[in-house]
Amino acid sequence: MHFDELLGVLGEFGLYQKYVFFLMCIPSIIAAFHMVNSVFLLGIPKHRCKLPNYPNDTFLSQGPAHDDLVKAYIPTELNVDDDVVYKKCAIFSIPVTGNATTPSEQSCSSWVYDKTVYENTFASEQDLICGKQIWATNAKMIFFAGVLVGALCLGALSDKIGRKKTLILSILSLLASSLAVSWAANFYVFCVLRFIVGFSCAGLFMSAFVLGMEIVGPSKRMWVGIVIEYFFALGLVLLCLIGYLIREWKYNEITLSVPSAILLSYWWLLPESPRWLVNRGRLEEAKVIIRRIAKRNKVQVTEKQLDALECDEKVTGQLWHLFTSRVLLVRTLIIFFNWCVVSMVYYGLSLNSGNLAGDFYLNFFLTGLVEFPAYTLCLVLLDRVGRKKLHCACMVLGGLACISTIFTVLYLGKKWDSWRSFWSGTSAGCVWKCVRVSRIAFSHFTGDIGS
């Protein structure tokens, strides 16, 4: 008897499987925290050069006298909307006075930052701007390099030592590295630690996903595979709330790291995947877990059925086997390319939500919120339309939507301000205002505690 056949007796999605699946959804929330937290760690606030001989300089105006000094020292330019703005990386060698000849511009070595969106980020603390702005992009790239390496290494490791052990190792690694990020002394240490965080996130999500899928029956796997993504989207929404309330990057990172410690309890709460144990020939350990499932699901499993268990996989497949057949090779390359494009667009849009017009936190909140109807659409249509047609339709629709954003820039322009004013009067705008009030109250509360 194969394990899938035994699941028909145990119940494909009984009480015990629901318990395990719910526990497996929590790591998805935590993985979402760290996968997209670069938005808050490496966000670059508005900035300009710091005024010389003005120790208390701030980005925001301190009054008419301060404004006059800024006009005298900081050159201006036109931005993409043809608005006059101060240059970010240049300062006059001497102040402009009256009708005197405009002095030469020079680069500056210190800046002041707008604290409206972020109180502080790693990018602003390390001045990763102007000539070093590419460094922030490189740090994001290094994080996702860690995700790639983690997916390859920890995926293979979970086949060797088991899903549960790989999950716990990923949790330990994530907890240690994400906490250490908060004390990163320089850019290079920060990148190394963020690489480890990405490495650990890959193992965390994959191990949880596979363990959750392997313990349920075949007819429920589509639902389980999609529902766990709701929790990833929930993690994005919660990340927006945490980022809104905690705008200092170090405290933000610590807050997001602490929940990983709770997951260490999974060593006692979770079973190993019985399917993996059966396929590894560890039948006695698998039988213990199967009896536990039967007891919790209130069904009877005979010793004869347990003794009839046999391995589902007579020959273990290897990664390179995907490239040994022409059909498998073509399909594998297509899937690889599709996954690459989807990931690039998904994270490209998510990590650049701060570059959109309007409120930064609202934009990020909407990028997380929009995933809920998307996953619901998958649940409704996947079995009705089919995998191939739905996938192709979503790729085409997403591509057209990305191309169409060009027209909003070309033809909408500054009309966006009137649309934003209109939106702020809607019920959704009122909800967002309530969140803003809550954040102000939270700030006063924490300030009272600190004093």
Strand content: under 5%
Helix-and-strand structural type: mainly alpha
> Total number of helical segments?
21
Major sheet summary line = 2 strands, antiparallel
Classify the oligomer: single chain
Helix proportion: 55-70%
Q: What order do the helices and strands follow?
A: HHHEHEEEEEHHHHHHHHHHHHHHHHH
Describe the structure.
It is a single chain. The chain has helices at 3-10, 15-35, 38-41, 64-73, 122-125, 133-161, 163-181, 187-214, 221-245, 249-257, 259-262, 266-269, 274-279, 283-297, 303-307, 326-351, 360-369, 371-385, 387-412, 415-424, 427-450; strands at 47-49, 76-78, 84-86, 90-92, 105-107, 111-113. With 451 residues, it is mostly helical. Helix 7 packs antiparallel against helix 8 (187-214). Strand 2 (76-78) and strand 3 (84-86) form a beta hairpin. The chain has 21 helices and 6 strands. The protein starts with a helix and ends with a helix.
Question: What labels describe this entry?
Answer:
single chain, 451 residues, mainly alpha, 4% strand, disordered C terminus
Topology:
Layout: H1 3-10, H2 15-35, H3 38-41, E1 47-49, H4 64-73, E2 76-78, E3 84-86, E4 90-92, E5 105-107, E6 111-113, H5 122-125, H6 133-161, H7 163-181, H8 187-214, H9 221-245, H10 249-257, H11 259-262, H12 266-269, H13 274-279, H14 283-297, H15 303-307, H16 326-351, H17 360-369, H18 371-385, H19 387-412, H20 415-424, H21 427-450
Antiparallel strand pairs: 1-6, 2-3, 4-5
Helix pairs in contact: 2-8, 2-9, 6-7, 6-8, 7-8, 7-10, 8-9, 9-17, 9-18, 18-19
